[in-house]
């Protein structure tokens, strides 16, 4: 029997729900699900220029597990680009470092300090915010 999967720590959720190819046929053949942990691996390795060992420690997984997550993300992105598929984010086996919120008016994602009592968007001051949760 395989071991239970360890949850991967995500510093911040993706700032998007998905991407669609521009100018592609309107009858796209499905979509690709990019998991939060795969997004985080791409962000840490390619955007933040961390090596796999540093990034794996930040995510709370082994270096080998990080390498597998990173490789899976790269393959999914490549498949979506080559096959003109939509990319959608999915929660996966992850947990967020802090409570994250999204504003339904301006779509900004943010955290609130613990001492903050009001639930308003820091950008547009809207009260139409919701917590980013596992789906």
Describe this structure in words.
- By secondary structure, the chain is an alpha/beta fold.
- It has 2 domains: 1-97, no CATH class; 99-135, Rubrerythrin, domain 2, CATH 2.20.28.
- Helix content is 30%, strand content 21%.
- The chain is built from 3 helices and 8 strands; from the N terminus they run E-E-E-H-H-H-E-E-E-E-E.
- The chain has helices spanning 36-47, 52-59, 63-82; strands at 8-10, 18-19, 31-35, 86-90, 94-96, 100-103, 109-111, 129-131.
- It has a 3-stranded mixed beta sheet with strand order 2-4-3.
- A hairpin with a 5-residue loop joins strand 6 (100-103) and strand 7 (109-111).
- It is globular, with a radius of gyration of 17 Å.
- The two termini are 26 Å apart.
- The model has no long low-confidence stretch (mean pLDDT 83).
Strand residue content: 15-25%
By secondary-structure content and strand pairing, the structural class works out as: alpha/beta
Share of helical residues: 25-40%
Task: Give the total of beta strands.
Answer: 8
Q: Estimate nothing, just give the exact number of structural domains.
A: 2
The main sheet comes to: 3 strands, mixed
Shape, per Cα inertia axes? globular
The helix tally amounts to 3
Measure the end-to-end span: 26 Å
User: Which strand order does the major sheet show?
Assistant: 2-4-3
Provide the low-confidence segments as ranges.
none
Which radius of gyration do the C-alpha atoms yield?
17 Å
Q: Order of helices and strands, N to C? A: EEEHHHEEEEE
Mean pLDDT: 83
């Amino acid at each position: 029997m395989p071991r239970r999967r360890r949850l991967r720590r995500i510093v911040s959720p993706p700032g998007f729900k998905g991407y669609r190819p521009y100018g592609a046929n309107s009858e796209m053949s499905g979509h690709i699900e990019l998991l939060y942990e795969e997004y985080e691996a791409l962000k840490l390795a390619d955007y933040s220029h961390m090596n796999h060992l540093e990034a794996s420690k930040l995510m709370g997984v082994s270096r080998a597990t990080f390498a597998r997550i990173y490789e899976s993300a790269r393959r999914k992105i490549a498949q979506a680009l080559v096959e003109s598929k939509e990319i959608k984010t999915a929660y996966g086996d992850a947990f967020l470092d802090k409570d994250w919120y999204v504003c339904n008016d301006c779509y900004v994602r943010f955290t609130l300090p613990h001492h903050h009592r009001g639930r308003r968007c820091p950008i547009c001051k809207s009260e139409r915010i919701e917590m980013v949760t596992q789906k």
